[in-house]
Write a structure and sequence with these properties.
Rossmann fold; 7-stranded parallel beta sheet; 6 helices; 42% helix; globular
């Protein structure tokens, strides 16, 4: 697949915790599924929790997934990452995730998620959130379908 074709699609990052409940896993899965159904490319940190769930959802819907990995090995990616990108820079990879994304969807989250939110705010990238940090700049929604619809709407306003 050539990059020229991909330029027509949005790159949407899904960020969130690496240890999550079953209900949050289901939410993240559905976010990934809707991203793929909307013909967007999913980007995340490529590991467990929200990253794995959203990648699995996107793959189940026929989408493309990119994992920006903290370590130096491609095989540390979860089983649902199509394109593993080993960085060897640990949590500093969060800046790469944000730089690649046209917009971000936060599901729950911990300090790593908070750093991605901070990078996104600094770069004025839109963020939609489900059960995540409470900042006025984060557009809160209640469902995965609504999250994907809203992030695409916000991305379109920037273009």
């Amino acid at each position: 697949m050539a990059y020229e074709k991909l330029k027509k699609d949005y790159f949407i990052a899904v960020i969130g915790g690496s240890s999550i409940s079953d209900s949050l896993y289901n939410i993240a899965y559905k976010v990934g599924w809707w991203i793929a159904k909307r013909k967007c490319i999913l980007i995340n940190g490529g590991c467990s929790g929200v990253m794995e769930a959203s990648s699995k959802g996107a793959k189940d819907a026929g989408g493309l997934t990119v994992g920006i990995l903290p370590g130096k090995e491609k095989d540390e990616a979860n089983d649902f990452v199509d394109i593993p990108v080993p960085t060897g820079i640990s949590e500093a990879r969060n800046a790469i995730i944000v730089n690649m994304a046209d917009g971000l969807i936060a599901v729950d989250g911990e300090y790593g998620t908070l750093s991605e939110i901070a990078f996104a705010l600094k770069k004025k990238k839109p963020i939609v959130g489900i059960k995540t940090f409470d900042f006025k700049e984060i557009h809160k929604v209640d469902s995965p379908k609504e999250a994907v619809k809203k992030i695409i709407e916000l991305i379109n306003k920037r273009k």
